[in-house]
Amino acid sequence: TTEASDALFSTTQFLSFIQHINMMIAQKLAVLSILFASAEAAGGKKQKFAKAKSSKKSADEPVDECSAKENGIEVWKKTPNEDVKLRLTTAIDVDTCTYKMALSWEPNDDYPYIRQVTNADPTLANDTDYRSTCVAEGIFQSLTGEGPLTPEKNVGLQEFYTDYAFGIDVSANVQEYIGFKYVSLGASPCGTFLQPFPQYSVHFYDITNKQREELRCVSDGDYFCKPMDQQCSDSGRGFQMNGTGIPTCAGAPVPGPPVYQNLPFGYFWTLDGNAAVGINAASPAMGLHAVDPSEFLPTRDVTEPYTLYVGYESEVIGNHVLLWSGIAEGLRPDYTKETLNYNCQTEDKAYYPTKTNVSYKNGRTVVSIEGALSQCTGPSFTEVVDSMEEAKGSKKSKSSKSSK
Fold it and tell me: Are 236 and 216 in contact (CB under 8 A)?
């Protein structure tokens, strides 16, 4: 039957994904060993990292003590939008009852390694300085449990294993038609241990940036939350990294992985102890990640964009497009992915995108999503929020005040 075929295909993808990730992690750990061995052979000493603190947390732990061990939005290095000439364009078409929301930007030379990738060396695998720098700043800490990061010395304070963060609030006018409230861009020189190459990330959130500030967890200063049994607050436990309470669809085909509500078929949440990497992929001020296993198959080109989702407290709260930084240099063709159906989709998520597009035009990278409007009344319109125009307006305002 079709259901049985779909389930078998999904299971096959899932197992292949597990095998590929295990192989990828083994390769990265081998690189780590080689880097340390090279340093010792050269007469240097193996860098001593403090063991990352991971003591078990109690639900009854005092609030102040728990708060000191958690990280949130500070792990993302807040950076002025005008540094990348960030622009958000939203077209609302009430005649077709559809929208198109596009975030675009230009690369910035000030951010290390982002602009150094090539088609010949897309992950900078041949650049030993790049690899050793990312290792020294803790790119493998979540995987190995050892590294320089602490809640106080977190990734948001670093230069290389860090994420330069930008974002634009969605206007109240647009929010009348679709549920997205905040759109963010991240520029990451090192990436993460799962995708260790220079990259950009775009998130379309249906929570506000202020609400993101409340999404805190124990992460030892890294991008990935510790397991559920090490979380010490309701905020940390709200990531549901153990899977408890995440809605699934009734009547899911068997055999096959769980079919999760409001995710496309075949996507799964990356939970504690998962067979692929063993740790969850929940991130402070971002959410728990859901992935498409087919995007992690060993035959897939890493320069092709990844489409993910994020969730918190039993809700999908946004979708996430991760892309190799070479796309922002015009080094690969445009990319389009259609997502026509979501598992047992609830009415309040009906605006989630049915099409994602990544393109490079006139020196700007454009990540756009398209989907159905939540309501189809009133006039059609296009709204542009341009950081460069906002910056000019801010300067004029300050100039006007100083002249009084």
Answer: yes
To which residue do tokens 């559809």 refer?
Answer: 98
User: Closest Cα partner for 322 from 230, 224, 219, 191?
Assistant: 191
**pLDDT tens digits, one per residue of 103-133:** 999 999 999 999 999 999 999 999 999 999 9
pTM recorded for the entire structure: 0.84
Helix 2-41 crosses helix 128-136 at what angle (to 10 degrees)? 100
- Closest residue by Cα to residue 243 from 262, 227, 266, 230: 227
How many CB atoms lie under 10 A from the CB of residue 363?
A: 11
Question: Cβ distance 312 to 320 under 8 Å?
Answer: no
Please compute, for residue 341, the number of CA atoms within 13 A of its CA located in the half-sphere on the CB side. 5
Write the CA distances from 278 to 201, 274, 392, integer angstroms.
23, 5, 48
pLDDT digits (tens, 9 = 90+) for 59-96: 556 668 999 999 999 999 999 999 999 999 999 999 99
DSSP code of residue 56 = P
On whether the CB atoms of residues 298 and 23 are closer than 8 A, the answer is yes
Name the token pair of 77.
Answer: 């290095």
Long-range CB contact pairs, 23-31, < 8 A, 24+ = 23/298, 25/143, 25/193, 25/277, 28/140, 28/143, 28/193, 28/196, 29/140, 29/143, 29/144, 31/131
Beta-carbon count within 10 A of 251 CB: 8
Residue 214 phi, psi (nearest 5): -85, -10
Q: Given the structure tokens 């669809």, which residue do they identify?
A: 249
User: In whole angstroms, how far apart are CA 270 and each of 85, 118, 142, 243, 388?
Assistant: 33, 30, 14, 9, 37
Residue 388 CB neighbours (<10 A) = 12
What are the C-alpha distances in Å from 52 to residues 58, 195, 276? 18, 21, 22
Return the bridge partners of 361, or none: 364
**What would the two tokens of residue 261 be?**
């509500």
The C-alpha atoms of residue 220 and residue 236 are separated, in whole angstroms, by: 13
Calpha distance 224→282 (Å, rounded): 5
Q: How many CB atoms sit inside 10 A of residue 140's CB?
A: 22
* R_g over Cα of the chain: 21
Do the beta carbons of residue 272 and residue 241 sit within 8 Å? yes
End-to-end CA distance of the chain: 77
All residues at 6 or more sequence positions from 254 whose CB lies less than 8 Å from its CB, including other chains = 7
